[in-house]
């Protein structure tokens, strides 16, 4: 596949866990890892509180329950993504299994799921029209 054909921008994608080693493999000194970026959960909370208030104003909000792997599979990971991008909704539908059956799996799994938050970061002011695919 073409390396430019991705559903996300690596430089803007962060995975948050208490310990970096749980998420991103250590790279040699002077080498930039390509598997993503890590951020501590408390740093993420601070960043979200700074960037997200009002960023989705005027947009349709989508809640996407998804499973990476067969729904209910022993190795599958369930998640819920909150976004204001119809493009992300379509992409998630292509890349994962989505729907209410995933919510049933989350309920059976003691309520555990991966939390995902995304926004195009462009609120719509009163009287403005949104572009068709702001991504």
Concise structural overview:
The chain has 135 residues and is an alpha/beta fold.
Describe the structure.
This protein has 135 residues and is of the alpha/beta class. The protein contains 3 helices and 6 strands, in the order ββαββαβαβ. Strands 5-3-4-6 form a 4-stranded mixed sheet, sandwiched between helices. A hairpin with an 8-residue loop joins β3 (62-68) and β4. The radius of gyration is 17 Å and the shape is globular. The mean pLDDT is 85.
Write the layout of secondary structure elements.
Blueprint: E1 14-16, E2 37-39, H1 41-51, E3 62-68, E4 77-83, H2 86-95, E5 97-98, H3 100-108, E6 114-117
Parallel strand pairs: 1-2, 4-6
Antiparallel strand pairs: 3-4, 3-5
Backbone shape: globular
Rg: 17 Å
Strands side by side in the biggest sheet: 5-3-4-6
**Number of helical regions:** 3
Strand content: 15-25%
Q: Multimeric state of these chains?
A: single chain
Main sheet specs = 4 strands, mixed
Termini Cα gap: 21 Å
Defining key terms:
135 residues; alpha/beta; four-stranded mixed sheet; two-stranded parallel ribbon; 6 strands; 19% strand
């Amino acid at each position: 596949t073409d390396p430019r054909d991705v559903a996300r921008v690596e430089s803007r994608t962060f995975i948050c866990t208490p310990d970096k080693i749980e998420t991103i493999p250590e790279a040699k000194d002077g080498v930039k890892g390509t598997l993503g970026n890590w951020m501590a959960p408390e740093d993420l909370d601070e960043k979200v509180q700074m960037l997200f208030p009002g960023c989705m104003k005027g947009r349709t909000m989508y809640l996407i329950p998804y499973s990476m792997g067969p729904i209910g599979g022993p190795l599958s990971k369930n998640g819920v993504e909150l976004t204001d991008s119809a493009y992300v909704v379509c992409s998630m539908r292509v890349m994962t299994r989505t729907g209410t059956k995933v919510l049933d799996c989350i309920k059976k799994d003691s309520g555990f799921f991966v939390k995902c938050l995304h926004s195009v970061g462009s609120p719509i002011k009163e009287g403005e029209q949104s572009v068709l695919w702001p991504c």
